[in-house]
Write a structure and sequence with these properties.
This protein is an alpha+beta fold. The protein has one domain: Nuclear Transport Factor 2, Chain: A. The protein has 3 helices and 9 strands, in the order ββββαβββββαα. The strands form 3 sheets. A 4-stranded antiparallel β-sheet has the order 5-6-7-8. Strands 3-4-9 form a 3-stranded mixed β-sheet. Strands 1-2 form a two-stranded antiparallel ribbon. Strand 7 and strand 8 form a beta hairpin. The protein is elongated and about 50 Å long.
């Protein structure tokens, strides 16, 4: 791995074959993406309108939020997704919701775009391989305690 140090002392991982395109997307292969370290930036809770659910029996209100992560590369990759907290599980489980948001477009060996559907699927696999739930739980606990 190659790390570059900036004037402020921050170290950035220099990944091979990453290009920042004119459309703002960072193009790289799946193999390169899998080698890139990411760090948790922030997480938050979604705001609900505050009106209680309409029902005759007791019910649980859903807890959901978002999380944002950054690569330690230059250019910086952003990766975010929504989550919900399954409070019926013991212990509680944070589960990713929907497609991730990112400034990435994956390419094949010939540098042809794989498309958003394949890129999203690979980003979902990447997220599933991370132990992100602990970082989100810790951040949410300290931010909203």
């Amino acid at each position: 791995m190659m790390y570059l140090t900036t004037n402020d002392g921050l170290a950035f991982f220099q990944a091979p074959m990453m290009t920042l395109s004119d459309d703002g997307l960072i193009r790289l292969t799946v193999e390169t993406l899998r080698t890139i370290p990411f760090t948790h930036l922030l997480s938050g809770l979604d705001e609900h309108d505050g009106s209680p659910p309409i029902c005759e029996a007791a019910s649980l209100d859903s807890i959901s939020g978002y999380t944002e992560w950054l690569s330690t590369t230059s250019p910086v990759i952003t990766l975010g997704w929504d989550w919900w907290l399954d409070v019926c599980a013991t212990p509680f489980v944070y589960t990713r919701l929907g497609s991730p948001r990112s400034n990435v477009m994956l390419v094949d060996a010939q540098h042809h775009d794989l498309g958003m559907r394949k890129t999203d699927a690979e980003l979902e696999r990447l997220i599933a391989s991370w132990p992100w739930q602990g970082a989100v739980a810790q951040f949410i606990s300290s931010r909203y305690a």
